[in-house]
Design a protein that fits this description.
The complex is a heterodimer of chains A (408) and B (85). Chain A has 13 helices and 14 strands. Chain A is α/β, with parallel strands linked by helices and 408 residues long. In chain A, the strands form three sheets. A ten-stranded mixed beta sheet of chain A has the order 5-4-6-7-1-8-14-13-9-10, with helices on both faces. Chain A has a two-stranded antiparallel sheet with strand order 2-3. Chain A has a two-stranded antiparallel sheet with strand order 11-12. The longest helix of chain A is centred in the N-terminal third of the chain and has 17 residues. The radius of gyration of chain A is 20 Å and the shape is globular. The two termini of chain A are 19 Å apart. The longest helix of chain B is centred in the C-terminal third of the chain and has 16 residues. Chain B is globular, with a radius of gyration of 12 Å. Chain B is built from four helices and no strands. Chain B has 85 residues and is an all-alpha fold. Classes of the chains: A alpha/beta (408), B mainly alpha (85).
Chain lengths: 408, 85
């Protein structure tokens, strides 16, 4: 089986727009969640989110910017960092064996929202000329392929909150199967618009704003957790076969060793211990490692009552007694839930934690829940110089569970 | 102001095309106006002139080769709207 290296990474996140600032914030335990703007602030029930400070006009020429939804802007910016980091020059690469695999939950949601506002809100009979091209779910992946001239597979996965973990796992499969040498993989999401936020409000799964400190509203695994906080951003990694990497003299930041994929098929929102546990087991099997070898778990840890209890039980089902001695943290406490980009961002967080030998904390976990009794690295991160193997969990509405294992 | 001048101004302002390049015989493809750019231009023209351009992409492509073709086409639509022959 072809081994798959992670040779580059890039992020656009509520905690900063490159890997270095993203991880610095995670290590400090700094939250990027706060009050967010809205077209109709007075009509918003939910006023918090993990918003990205980003100005596309500083990066893209005006004519191109008019064709790019915010989600594609994020993806291209994160991709630029990842490609730079990998030291890849696509002029030197067989681009017919290079592809793209992205995940997104809602694609160009901002353009969709904007279009509907124009039609229904303003009574206009027409929308912007490129509305279709901006809103289509595969736009971000297509732009990456176009910009770098990659003619291998160009794929977009949408499995809600596990979309980008699936995209990374499936990209590794493309390389392992011999379809490609290099895959740009990850995810992007930009759905903090009025319409999408209203839909989430209606589902009643969003966190109540912390009255004292809005940035502390997402409290994974805590007794007083009240729901998830939505975030936006993108995370991209460059995956390549070790053979390709060595031939071009690149360096591996890590190896994607395991990928587990299962579906609950029990309920459209309620997670299942069995489904989550099965995905973790399959990831361990594909990585050919024993549960005892895992040094860190970056949890899905949404901060919803349902997920965090179930995920805790699933980790115990897989790891047994050893579950209590593995640090498990939810970085969503700081960057929020990036939905279709969450899996990729947290995969990068896991990789960086191993590289730096430092486990980021689960912030805002002050009141323990007896149902959640693992070591969640509450409030303060900690050094873990010998940590080599990390697991990143992503579980989704709809029931698609994806787990990635990375080794440094 | 003539339609020619108004289009020169609009393409200069919104699409960054130098007015001196916008001569009647200038070919649209030499001005880097591809099919998608043309859709954007038509959108702006519809707003600026208060007209509706009925042609779809295929017809626009065959009908409009030069900047002069675009000027004449818009002129004809403006005339139709104002009821002139």
């Amino acid at each position: 089986m072809t081994r798959v290296a992670v040779s580059g990474a890039g992020v656009i996140s509520p905690l900063g727009n490159d890997c270095a600032s993203f991880f610095a914030a995670l290590a400090e335990g700094r939250s990027g969640i706060g009050r967010i703007g809205s077209r109709f602030p007075e009509r918003m029930g939910c006023r918090i989110g993990g918003a990205v400070a980003f100005d596309g006009s500083k990066i893209f020429p005006a004519a191109k910017l008019r064709m790019l939804d915010r989600v594609s802007q994020f993806a291209l910016a994160a991709c630029a960092e990842a490609v730079r980091d990998a030291g890849l020059d696509f002029k030197q690469v067989d681009v017919s064996r290079a592809g793209v695999s992205l995940g997104t939950g809602t694609g160009g949601a901002e353009s969709t929202d904007e279009g509907y506002f124009t039609l229904y809100g303003q009574g206009s009979d027409r929308v912007k000329p490129f509305s279709v091209l901006m809103a289509m779910s595969n736009a971000a992946a297509s732009w990456i392929g176009l910009d770098y001239g990659l003619t291998g597979p160009n794929l977009t996965y949408t499995t809600a909150c596990s979309s980008s973990a699936v995209a990374i796992g499936e990209a590794a499969r493309r390389i392992a199967a011999g379809d490609a040498d290099v895959m740009i993989a990850g995810g992007a999401e930009a759905s903090l618009n009025f319409g999408t936020l209203k839909a989430w409000e209606a589902l009643k799964t969003l966190a109540t704003e912390d009255p004292a400190d809005p940035s502390a509203s997402c409290k994974p695994f805590a007794k007083d957790r009240s729901g998830l906080v939505l975030g936006e951003g993108a995370a991209i990694v460059v995956l390549e076969s070790f053979e390709h990497l060595e031939k071009r003299g690149g360096r591996a930041r890590g190896e994607l060793t395991g990928y587990g994929l299962t579906s609950d098929a029990t309920h459209i929102t309620r997670p299942s211990v069995e489904g989550q546990a099965a995905a973790m087991r399959r990831a361990l099997e594909s990585a050919r490692i024993a549960p005892g070898e895992v040094d860190y778990i970056n949890a899905h840890g949404t901060g919803t009552v349902a997920n965090d209890g179930v995920e805790t039980a699933a980790i115990k089902a897989v790891f047994g007694e050893r579950a209590y001695s593995i640090p498990v943290s939810s970085t969503k406490s700081m960057h929020g839930h990036l939905l279709g980009a969450a899996g990729a961002l947290e995969f990068v967080a896991t990789l960086l934690a191993l590289e730096k030998g430092f486990i980021p904390p689960t912030r805002h976990l002050r009141i323990r829940d007896p149902e959640c009794d693992l070591d969640y690295v509450p409030e303060r991160g900690r050094a873990a110089a010998n940590a080599r193997v990390g697991m990143s969990n992503s579980f989704a509405f709809g029931g698609t569970n994806a787990v990635l294992v990375v080794r440094t | 102001m003539t339609t020619f001048e108004r289009l020169q101004g609009l393409l200069g302002k919104d699409f960054d095309i130098a007015p001196e390049k916008l001569q009647r015989d200038a070919r649209l493809e030499d001005l880097e106006i591809d099919s998608l750019r043309m859709i954007e231009i038509i959108f702006s023209v519809e707003e600026a002139f208060g007209i509706t351009v009925p042609a779809e992409q295929a017809e626009l492509k065959s009908r409009l080769v030069t900047f002069g073709d675009l000027v004449d086409y818009i002129d004809s639509l403006v005339a139709r709207k104002s009821g002139a022959p």
